[in-house]
């Protein structure tokens, strides 16, 4: 770097084509107080494969030349052009390298994820949620074993209150849904069986479907939307008001205090609600069979007893108990994970219902395979 002079030649950057690409000839004095070439105006042609520099006529230079070289390097990096900075003076090359390290490169404008990225992110999210749910199930098992060994520490009053809320107070909506499902099944069966003279088999269709599948399934869906969402909202509000943190500070585990009584209540009440739903569904089918197919109730009942046995009833009860545990754990888990805001509580409520229904359908399919293998 030579000293600046009063009659210094202006800074120039001339481009010339070479066999390998392009040569940038730097000449004159480069000063920040004077006009210097603009690389954006010089680089309007098609990007070459390589850019070299020639600086034999370069005079005085300062940070203006460093900034010019940085623009060239960024342009080459964007267009995939090799920029040969090795012939430059060592001091100039070092300053350009330091500026590059401190420069924040803008992100590409188009960063929309591709299909594989979406699949990968969804897989990682599913794996993370599976670990969270498995960890929570483990905590519930440990707390359940602890409370079974110390029954005096179990909150019986809370469990009884939850049984009343999720059991007795859910009878109207559960009964209505089950009755309508029985009516729908009877109507659908009549359309299919009547042309073949199989009117009486409507009783078989309604009885088997209600006791094995629809009684437990419809009850679980109703309870997931009613009680599971309620669990998530209650515990989410407690978390937002730092009541859960207060329990932890007092040495009380939230799973023992808040979760286990609710899970026990649902695990006990769901089979009873399923039996109630089975009865209402069969009643709805009997009314349609009597009114539409002229099948008297005694004949409907006798035909029903010929096909429905204890294995059908037990199948539905096992499913109902499992669905109750799933709904309780999904609601409580989402409540404990809720963010400390009103919107966080709302999101936890929605997530609890979605999680519970997804797991209910999944476990119902698993049970269908298992019971088929066992011959039930």
Automatic annotation (TrEMBL):
Entry keywords, A to Z: Membrane, Transmembrane, Transmembrane helix
UniProt name for this protein: ABC transporter permease
TM helices/strands, residue ranges: 169-193, 263-293, 313-336, 348-374
Similarity field: Belongs to the MlaE permease family.
């Amino acid at each position: 770097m030579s000293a600046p002079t009063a009659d210094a030649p202006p800074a120039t950057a001339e481009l010339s084509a070479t066999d390998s690409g392009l040569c940038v000839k730097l000449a004159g004095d480069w000063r920040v107080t004077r006009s210097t070439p603009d690389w954006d105006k010089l680089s309007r042609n098609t990007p070459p494969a390589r850019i070299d520099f020639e600086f034999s006529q370069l005079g005085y230079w300062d940070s203006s030349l460093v900034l010019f070289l940085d623009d060239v390097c960024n342009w080459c990096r964007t267009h995939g052009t090799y920029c040969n900075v090795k012939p430059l003076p060592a001091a100039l090359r070092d300053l350009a390298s330091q500026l590059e390290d401190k420069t924040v490169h803008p992100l590409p404008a188009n960063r929309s994820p591709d299909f594989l990225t979406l699949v990968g992110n969804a897989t990682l999210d599913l794996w993370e949620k599976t670990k969270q749910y498995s960890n929570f199930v483990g905590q519930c098992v440990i707390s359940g074993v602890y409370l079974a060994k110390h029954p005096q520490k179990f909150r019986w009053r809370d469990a009884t209150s939850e049984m009343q809320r999720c059991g007795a107070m859910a009878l109207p909506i559960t009964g209505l849904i089950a009755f309508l499902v029985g009516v729908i099944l009877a109507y659908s069966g009549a359309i299919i069986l009547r042309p073949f003279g199989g009117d009486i088999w409507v009783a078989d269709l309604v009885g088997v479907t209600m006791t094995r599948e629809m009684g437990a399934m419809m009850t679980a869906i109703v309870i997931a939307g009613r009680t599971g969402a309620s669990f998530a909202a209650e515990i989410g509000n407690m978390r937002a008001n730092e009541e859960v943190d207060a329990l932890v500070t007092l040495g009380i585990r939230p799973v023992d205090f808040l979760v286990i009584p609710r899970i026990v209540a649902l695990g006990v009440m769901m089979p009873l609600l399923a039996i109630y739903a089975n009865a209402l569904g069969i009643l709805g089918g009997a009314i349609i069979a009597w009114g539409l197919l002229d099948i008297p109730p005694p004949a409907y009942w006798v035909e029903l007893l010929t096909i429905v046995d204890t294995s059908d009833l037990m199948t539905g009860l096992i499913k109902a108990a499992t669905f109750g545990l799933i709904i309780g754990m999904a609601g409580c888990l989402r409540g404990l994970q809720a963010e400390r805001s009103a919107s966080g509580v709302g999101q936890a409520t929605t997530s609890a219902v979605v999680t519970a229904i997804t797991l209910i359908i999944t476990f119902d399919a698993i049970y269908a395979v298992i019971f088929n293998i066992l011959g039930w």
